[in-house]
TrEMBL record:
Full protein name: Uncharacterized protein
Organism: Novipirellula herctigrandis
Amino acid sequence: MAGEAFARGFNKAKSKAFIADGLKVNWSLWSTHFSHYTSITDLMHALSYVDGAAIASHGRIEDGWSLYLDWLSWVWSGDVDRVIAALQRIAVGQEEVPEAIRRAITCLSNNAERLKYAEDRKSGLPITTSPVESTQKQINKRIKRTEKFWRDESLEPLLQLKADDLSETHGRGAF
């Protein structure tokens, strides 16, 4: 994987970011091959936990909305410790802590060093994988249009060709 990143010229970038969700396997990959890249937990991933916890703390979306907006702004500004503290205060006052609140505390605590969004934005780094995921969905939609049927063995090479063409990393002569 590191070899492919090198072949694609990633090493030439002045600033480098490794963005992923909170899965441990992603951060093992980062520490093994890309530890010299800035590690960033995907903003949308973090906010999904914050949203779930805000709803769980009030029982309804409508009631948790203003709390979510506060927490969202704290996460956006890089003040994730403030969100963790607020969640812990809520948890202490409950006999049984809702799963969404426990998961948010765990996710934010485990990834706190990778949730420095204000700092990362100031450095010009991306803070979400959303543009890449959106492009992937566009490619899939265009390739899998109605009236187009692909045999399983032919679809993957076609997707690879399209991805390579868009990324401009491999000449067509390689195929």
